[in-house]
Amino acid sequence: MDFFLQMLVTGLVVGSVYALVALGFVLIYKSSDAINFAQGEFLLIGTYVCLTLITSYNIPFIAALLIALLFSAVLGFAIERIVLRPFIGEPVISMIMATIGLSSVLAGIVHIIWGHETRVFPQIFSDQPVRLGEIVIAPVYLWSLLIVIIMLLIFTLFFKYSKMGIAMRATADDQQAAMSMGISVKAIFAVAWAIAAIVSAVGGVLLGNINGVNASLSAIGLKVLPVAILGGLDSIPGAIIGGLIIGVIESMTGGYLDPLVGGGLKEVMPFVILVFILMFKPYGLFGKKEIERV
Amino acid sequence: MKNPFVMDCGEFHVNYKQDMRIWKIARVRWRVFLLIAVFALLPLISSDYLIGLATLCGIAAIGAIGLNILTGFTGQISIGVGAFLGVGGYTSAILTAKLGLSFWLAMPMAGIITAIVGGLFGLPSLRLKGLYLAIATLAAQVIILFIISRWDAVTGGTAGLVLSRPEIGNFAFYSERSYYYLMFTILVLTTIFTLNLFRSRVGRAFIAVRDRDIAAEVMGIDLFKYKVLAFVVSSFFIGIAGALLGHYTMIVSPEMYSITVSIEYLAIILVGGLGSVFGSIYGAVFITLLPVVLRAGVELLSGVFPELSAVLIGLKEVAFGLVIILFLIYEPQGLAKIWKNIKDYFKLWPFSY
User: Which residue in B has a C-alpha nearest to residue A86's C-alpha?
Assistant: First the structure.
């Protein structure tokens, strides 16, 4: 039972980070119908910037994180403007390939600047484990969960009450109607990309604190796909629930099944689930079914 | 008499038979024969290194034609090519190395098995479209690769399997030159088959499905049948390419079939031209030679910028991504369209249109 609870908590923490990154993915899809295969590289760049600020310039963690987030936002803006703007309304394959190309460029830049070796964040959270009843949790996990919950809360409030958030929802609902109400759809797209880059950077910094930082961190960008599909590509609550489900399943697979098959099943399980979900619910758990006309 | 120095300024067909030919004008027919002759004679005068590169380009072209049938002509995006290549390579490896079958039986079998696997993963395509389908094929990639790297008893696990070169009687295809001719024959057959496919009922149905699947269904095209069929036909060629590649490198291992390969193949058909058979070949040559040219360029500049060679891998990735993005922005129809523009320019020269 201890083991089960331990796995559950680990899964929830990792899942909450997935949820955060998936939120950025869904946000972009919802507002501009674009799919961002470069989400993993956004995460990587944000993390490396934060790490470099801390280790090379001795900036305290919180300040470094804020600067990294600012940098990510600017990067998101710039990429939307330079690369993605020409692809609005283009076929799906152009969009997919454009973001795949973008991810390749960003990954290459990361290789050139930061190299390949794994780096670790300096100790930020205490390493004294916290005991919750019978299970033991590293503080970094608790902090991660807390930060993710705060971020999700902020975004929920942002979408519900702020002018920009409401405008974003309106654009997602109907671009033309939003435009006729005087909403600048282009500005909305730019903000969506900036937010996506910000949440990825936060997710990356948290995961980097847990596992260390190297280029394989960008694999999260692929793992976010099952999460987003599971919840439904255009549903923000779906992304959050999908993230938690995938995180828990992954952790359980890692705990119970991996020893039986010799490892590696953990990474594959989300995709197996993805295939099953798509067979029965092609638009995910909460996705909106598209109605097509000839 | 016709002036030999001017070109026809258009194709004018007076009957259906003419309109349905593959090569519509005698001049084009001769050009194709000439091209085939040039490429058949090429290895006689070039070095082993160049022939090796050409072989790799050709194998990539066979796979790319396969993918283009699915993605370019039928409009079903697949990010699982890498794994399907792996299925082909491993099938051939297992059949020849473990069961002792001859290559000439194993290669078609590799195509057929890959076609079956491809058809299986194509089944969701009836209900899934665009992005959702792309991600389902991505799942296929991850799952197949997992099976390949974990099913140690059959696939040799992460170490992979060792293959031998094919043989006819006493003659084995060990030299670069002989393997080039093997690849070239299969490439020509693939190209002719595919060109003919799109003159047939099935091929036209594929194109109709791509252009608007609901409209195609209304016109009596069985969507499910043709979508799965597209997966099957496309995977068959990808499997053949996988087998050829396996026997060329003489080893198959899981890392040869990663998602990067899938992306590379998508880039090939995109750069070459979606929905163009010859475009697949141009794209295969372009993308296969890109890192080679880049490495040569870096070596050339390493005297001036010695630190350049340290970041070669990163540079390759940047160049690869940039090529994709620039083609998408400036010429979404790829090299095939650029070639067509050049031809059109000379066709109408000295007038602009």
Answer: B329
